[in-house]
# Entry
Amino acid sequence: MTTPRSYLGQIQPGWWVLAAFLLVYPWFATNFFTYQIGGYTLILGMIALSLMVLAGYGGMVSLAQITVAGVAAYTLPIFGENSVGVLGLGWPEWVLYPFAILIAAVFSTLVGLISVRTEGIYTIMITLAIAVSFFFFARQNYALFNGFQGFSGVDAPSFWGIYWRDPMPFYYLCLACAAFFFCATVYGARSTFGLTLQAIRDNPRRMGALGYNVTAHRVYAFFLAGLIAGTAGVLLVLFNGRVSPGTIGVDIAIDILVIAVVGGLRHPIGPFLGALAFVLLENFAIDLIDRERFNTVIGMAFLLVVFFSPDGLIGLWQKAAAKMRRRDNHGAKPTVKSTGEETQADLA
# Structure
């Protein structure tokens, strides 16, 4: 049986270099790049990772992941504190944050119960309908969601003498959460449940005939994805200091899908690559084009990546690495082994 310790021995050096870079990144980056680029990339990457778990391993494309994150985001000002004077029950933070994540996971489970009995385009349409319904409900309901204005004045916690909205602490908080869910996803994909879920993705009828509860596995995948998206939703409202229907808009739901597909649905690192590309374009593309044409740029980038690499950016990287390995193999000189004296090939 493979243990977590044995996985550490299988990690390639490049992953250690990446981990070291992410750890020291805030020490040479500006506050803008630490908070606005680094922190926001990790948050969007976690939401896209929850979609990757469902689509990549379970074959279920859900457009409701930003809605799941929004449920956790709305839970904070409703049960915690806000500055608009609507609700704000003042729950302590050590209860509030786990409760918000749990509520998001339960909501995601309900989405799964509704949608897992369908496949393909029907799953997409059901989850999109849920996302649209929740968006308009939050926009029109003032008693619970404060309508169009939403909630503002949602402050980040302060403990251990650290204010967790400061750029460096917030970045490390996001990095810790993202690293935990990334490692959990990699390990879970090789677990019994992960392998079973992937087998259900490939042939649900055969797995059902073998005695596996296909529906239960899919619903549980939605619950796990809800934990990831819910955590990202908590970080998102701490990042913005507010939450409104614009946070959970249909355009954002499409952006999450674009991030996941552009990054790649074959590996958990893909959503974070897609999130990085998206955040960089969102922040710097407006220097080259009008803000109104940003969606056009995102659409063109999406089409180019999908056209040249259906596996996304991670697929391009794997193709380049494979080409380099083939080139190295072709350039290597063959060695003729002999038990006697050195041959001419050995001396060449």
